[in-house]
Amino acid sequence: MTNSIIDGKQIAAQVTEKVKKRVEDLKAKGVTPGLAVVLVGNNAASQTYVNNKTKTCEKLGMYSVLIELDEQVSEEELLHKVEQLNNDDKIHGILVQLPLPKQIDEDRVIAAISPKKDVDGFHPESVGKMMIGQQTFLPCTPFGVLKLLEYSGVDVAGKHAVIIGRSNIVGKPMGQLLLQKDATVTYCHSRTKDLHAFTKQADILVVATGRAKMIDGSYIKEGAVVIDVGINRDENNKLCGDVDFASAQEVASKITPVPGGVGPMTIAMLMENTCLAAEITLN
Ligand code: GUN
Question: Which residues bind NADP(+) (predicted)?
Fold first, then answer.
């Protein structure tokens, strides 16, 4: 199969270039979009992700603050911090990096973020609006996948999209967003029997299992578009996705690499959401 590799870095650069112009317009009106990122504990991967988020903010001329809290922080203290950020006019978007330590109820923290500042799109109000197709903040990773497909000229309408994974962050919203674009959607997950039977029917296969190189070429229909959401380390400590890239690219027509596929898009969409949150304050 002559396939093309979907260049997420390049598409993310196009998206952020547009955001940068919107930031300039906002600044001319006296508003600097501001993002607060809250990181609890010292998970190395989370630290890398949040550093990338705040660095990109600065590159685009946005204001950003990184709030680092101890692994042992109480739920009450974290909720207090979120409340402060809800009331801080310089902050338009709040992101609490997940996962959170065991002593903290994630659902309570997410629900405490003002829906007006919910740039992750995880608040129940945002999720509900997304489900019924109302304007809201869309979760950054599935939103980024939609953009990748759009910029790569993949028309989703009428296609069979198969999602592997059913997390609240990726799998579930991914299926909803593709459904809204008129795809026929199938959800697969760890309890799915005969996964091959489903994935082999996919025109668009989105893989978000969190298991390194789990999906090889044998799962993929000739000519399918393959989107790999995973970020893992392989046996040589090299970054890799949930898809076995080498065998998958033999059969796919288009495929995202790891790194350089979905990852940069997640950050780009966070920037877009933060910019939108600031724009809304002017209306
Ligand atoms: N952990 C992994 N992905 C995400 C994300 O998109 N947002 C937040 N807040 N935490 C995450």
Answer: 165-167, 231
Question: CB of 141 closer than 6 A to ligand 1?
Answer: yes
Q: How far apart are CA 100 and CA 75, in angstroms?
A: 10
CATH of the domain at 34: 3.40.50.10860
Gap between the Cα atoms of 237 and 127, Å rounded: 35
Distance (angstroms) between ligand 1 centre and the Cα of 173 equals 13
Task: Convert the pLDDT of each residue in 147-192 to its tens digit.
Answer: 999 999 999 999 999 999 999 999 999 999 999 999 999 999 999 9
Whole-angstrom distance, CA of residue 112 vs CA of residue 123: 8
ipTM, interface predicted TM-score of the complex: 0.96
State how many domains the chain has: 2
Looking up residue 152, the CATH number of its domain turns out to be 3.40.50.720
> Phi, psi (5° rounding) for residue 217?
-55, -25
